[in-house]
Structure formats: structure tokens, C-alpha cells
Amino acid sequence: QVQVVESGGGLVQPGGSLKLSCVVPRSINNIYGMAWYWQAPGKSRIAVATSTKIRDERKNYADSVKGRFTISRDYDKNTLYLEMKRLQPGDTGVYFCALAMNLGGRYEFGGQGTQVTVSS
Fold this sequence. Notes:
It contains no helices and 11 strands. By secondary structure, the chain is mainly β.
């Protein structure tokens, strides 16, 4: 089972920024897919940012976060980041990191998530 540790959430005012981290206890060099999912209160988890890598890395974002969120991998630290800018109250929720080890594999969760609250 995948095990990760998410952190970096908190309370921020609208328009503010946060940077989330997901530490993976193994090398991420050969992990095909790494993603951030968002779960609003009472809702299902949805992917907001994904990083897939075979030779080159490809990044995809949900329309709601394009231009505001940036996903990135740090191979030296085995960490996935989500930089969040111009946060809105609608971004409030728990953010989870998920991994897909191989092409065609499903994304699996392994952490408790980190709470992000955007409120004035």
C-alpha cells in the first residue's frame, strides 16, 4: 500500500497562497503518475493536478485551478508539491496526494490529507 505524508495546509485569506507537500518514503524517479486530489466538505475527491512521466513529464490541471496551481516533483527530496496561488473560498477542502506506480495503474491514496481553508 502506498504511504505518503501530506502537509502545508492551513487557514488563508482569499487571494492568498499556500504550498502543499507530499513526501514519499521511496524514490519517485520511476513513479508514473503523481496527483493532488481535492475533497470539498461532503463531496467526493476529484483530481486537481496530475504529473505523469514516462520520458518527459506532462502536467494536467482541472479547469478550476489552471493558472493558479502548479504541481511539481522534487526528485532529490522524493516530494510532490502543489503551489496554490490566488486562493478562493471554493478551494476549501482536504487535499490528498495520490500515486499511480505504472502506466495504466490506478491512483492510490496513502495519507491523511492536509486541510486548506480559505476564509476572511
